[in-house]
Amino acid sequence: MSTSSSLRAPFWIATIVAIPVMLLAGYGVYQGISSSTSVSDVDAEADLSPVQVDVPVVEDDHVEVICRALLAKSPSELTDLPSRPVEASNDVSAASAAELSAAWGDPAIVMTCGVDEVEVADTDLVYRWGQVCWFVDEGSEAHVWTSVDREVPVRVEVPAVYEQSGEKVSVLSPVVADAVPAADEAPTGCGS
User: What is the pLDDT at residue 36?
Assistant: First the structure.
């Protein structure tokens, strides 16, 4: 065997090994790119039609001002969910719906300002997310979170298909704390 043929043997072995490895790596990259869904693909598939919301009738100017401030500060996305327009499902004007409610995602997570206060017993569990204290009613179709330590109650309805509904509420808590003043009194368990 000559020296030149003994030098070529490692070259051919490396080539024979490298080509299949490169082909497999290229195929893996191609599969990863083609199967990943871009943000624009998700947005194109999401239902962004108006959400029907049961809007409270607010007759107090102070409450209206607070709710408008809250909705003006509401995020355009909630975690990775895009915002959606809202429409009143009751006899409240369309302008009131947009001034009192916001929605994100499909199925929609809905935040409504100016709702009725919830009764919280001393033994009821409340959750403090940031500076806001929340009571949750965990239904089979949705978890309904209502702030219990604000001058104006805020409700966030999170469909049960979303795991960790409190995560969505915790993202909204700083916005609520910034726009809606704290009430003079809060239920037991809401201490800072």
Answer: 36
Assigned domain for 46 exists: yes
Q: What percent of the chain has pLDDT over 90?
A: 61
Q: What is the pLDDT of residue 191?
A: 76
- The single-letter code of the amino acid at 27 is Y
Q: Contact at 8 Å (CB) between 118 and 146?
A: yes
CA atoms within 13 A on the CB side of 162: 25
Q: Is residue 144 part of a domain?
A: yes
Residue 47 within any structural domain of the chain: yes
- Tell me which of 152 and 7 has the higher pLDDT: 152
Task: Give the length of the chain.
Answer: 192
Domain identity same for 76 and 110: yes
